[in-house]
Design brief:
By secondary structure, the protein is of the alpha/beta class. Helices cover 37% and strands 24% of the residues. The protein is built from nine helices and 15 strands. It has a seven-stranded parallel beta sheet, sandwiched between helices. A three-stranded antiparallel beta sheet has the order 1-3-2. The longest helix is centred in the N-terminal third of the chain and has 15 residues. The radius of gyration is 19 Å and the shape is globular.
Amino acid sequence: MSRDARWKALLELLVERGRLEVEQAAAELEVSAATIRRDFDQLAEQQMLVRTRGGAVVHGVSYELPLRYKTARHASEKQRIAKAVADLVAPGEAVGLTGGTTTTEVARALALRPDLASGSPALTVVTNALNIAGELAVRPQFKIVLTGGVARPQSYELVGPLADGVLSQITMDVAVLGVVAFDVTHGAAAHDEAEASINRLMCERAERVIVAADSSKLGRRAFARICAAESVDTLVTDAAVDEETVRRFTEAGVGVVAV
């Protein structure tokens, strides 16, 4: 197992359990305890976890995995979701994309659509995500509008008053939200309140709102609310979503696409 794969596995276990012991992690990853101790020390230096005697704990109650360590989680589901979301976008529209692994896949799916290979512009993409803007900026047929703001290293998203200022001056046809939780009662949510604020404003400036979320995020709550379920027009998720969840969202007025 490579170091990056090992680090990703350790961080995911920490998110799930809150605490890991060296011997326990070594047994689960089938490596030596010395390797795990070294990994914990290096991750602690990067402030991705807190070192304890004999193990490690997550870095605070609102801990989230940095984006670069989340890309492999539910990867096939996210790619199917992304293609389905991209198919809901019409040529010439102005599309808002929040940050996140699923919305990054949406950006890639849009870039691969043959009918969006040309145009002036084929699409206008508004985003506060540095990585998404970077990937799409090489597509001359796409007009890229990047908000200002202060970058969050966990998600590559720009947040704060500068981002607010740009979004308050524009309107979009559709906003695509990446979320960490989406529940009928509690709505769509993020870990960080500044990130949620920008995502909320993007929803308010769009004619329609699409939530792109794999089924593991449904029926869950997170710290910072983005919007109510009633503000979402369409939820695109994977086929593992259960019928009861679909029924509850449908009754709340949210169209559900399961792929």
